[in-house]
Amino acid sequence: MSSREGSDPLIRVEHLKHHFPIKSGLLFDRTVDRIHAVDDVTFELREGETLGLVGESGCGKTTLVRAIMRLVEPTEGTIRFGGRDISHASQRELRPLRRQMQMVFQDPYASLNPRKRVDQIVASPMRLHGEGEDAASRVRELLDRVGLSAEHANRYPHEFSGGQRQRIGVARALALEPKLILLDEPVSALDVSVQAQIINLLDDLQEEFGLTYLFVAHDLSVVRHVSDRIAVMYLGKIVELAAAEELYVKPIMPYTAALLAAIPIPDPKENRERERIVLEGEPPNPIDPPSGCPFHPRCPRATEICTRVEPPLTEYANGHLAACHHPLNVSDDEIAAARKSPASPLSSGDELPQPA
After folding, report:
1. Of the candidates 5, 14, 238, 254, which lies 20 to 30 Å from 244 by C-alpha distance?
2. How far apart are the first and last CA of the chain?
3. E strand map for the chain
4. Does an H or E element contain 258, and which?
C-alpha cells in the first residue's frame, strides 16, 4: 500500500446515481420503474492509494465501478478523473483516457477471449491505441512481471488455471501503463491460497508502478490487507468510510459490524466466544428502497427516526465517516464534536438526531 496523504484526488465522484430502467410494453419502449443500483455516492481516491469497496452482493459495487469506467452512463452526478469531468464525455473524448484507466474483471474464465492466444489478449490494448510495433517484447515483459513465462504467450486461455488467467488479466490491464486500475472482485473466484498470491502480486505492482486501485470485494478479510481506506456500501449508498485499521477496530455502522462479525477466525475458541451479529431478512428491493435509513428494516438498533429520516454521512474522529442515527463505538464527546464541526464535504450537512 502506498497512500499519498495530501495528494490531489485522481478520482472524485460526487452525488453519483445510476438507475437501470425497467421496460414494459409490446416493444419494451415504456419505462415503468427503475432499479436504484447506485444512489447518491460521493467519495475521492488519491494517487497511489488503494480504496477497498465492500458490501453484500447486489449492493451496487460493480455498477459503481462500471460507471466510473464509463461502461454505463451515469443517471446523475459527476465523475472527475485527474480534475477533468468525464461524467458524460463521448467515446471519442474517452479514448485517450482509456490509457490511464483499466479494469480487471471478476471472472477470469469469462473475461478472456477463448479464441485468442495470450499474446493477442495482452497486446490488444496496445494495438487499439496504435502501439502494435513493439507489442511482442512488451507482452513478454508483462508476462514475466505477473509471474508467467514467455512461452505462455502462444497458449490459449483454456490451458491455464484460474489464478494464471487472472494474472493474464492483470498483464492486459498493465499494457498501457495506466494510473488507475479498477479491480472488480479479482480474487473471489479463486482458491484461498491463490487469492493471497494475486493480492501480493497486486501489492508489488502498485509499489513498482505507482498504481492507484479501487478494489471491489464482498469479503472484508480480503480488502483489509490491500486497502488504505475502506468504503462500505449498502443498497446503492456508501454508509461508512474510514482508514482500513480504524474500520476494523472501531466500526460505527451496525451493518459494518455485522460484516466484520461474519469473518471466520482460525482459532475455534475465539470464534465461539466472540459476539455474533445476525442480520435478519434480505436486503430491500432496490426498485422500491425503504424510506429513512436504507438499513433500518434489518438493523437491530433501529428506532422510529430511522424509518423516517435518512442519516447523513457524518465525519467523526480520524476522518471516519458513517451514516447512522445510533452510531456504535462513538463517545458522547465525539457525537457533540461532529455536530459542532463544519459539515463534511461528504455529508449532507444535516444535524445528527439524538442517538438512543
Report:
1. 14
2. 38
3. 9-24, 30-46, 50-54, 76-81, 84-85, 101-104, 180-184, 212-217, 229-234, 237-243, 314-315, 321-322
4. helix 254-261
Which are the contacts of 179, defined by CB distance < 8 A and separation ≥ 6? Answer: 10, 47, 82, 100, 101, 210, 211, 212
C-alpha cell at 236: 446503492
CA dist list (Å): 266 to 36, 222, 226, 263, 274: 38, 15, 20, 10, 12
pLDDT digits (tens, 9 = 90+) for 108-127: 889 999 999 999 999 999 99
Cα→Cα distances 45→115, 140, 292, 322, Å: 36, 31, 28, 17
User: How far apart are the C-alpha atoms of 8 and 83, rounded to whole Å?
Assistant: 9
Euclidean distance between CA atoms 234 and 286, whole angstroms: 10
- Mean pLDDT taken over the chain: 88
At residue 2 the predicted structure's pLDDT band, cuts being 50, 70 and 90, is very low
Report residue 208's pLDDT band, with 50, 70 and 90 as the boundaries.
Answer: very high
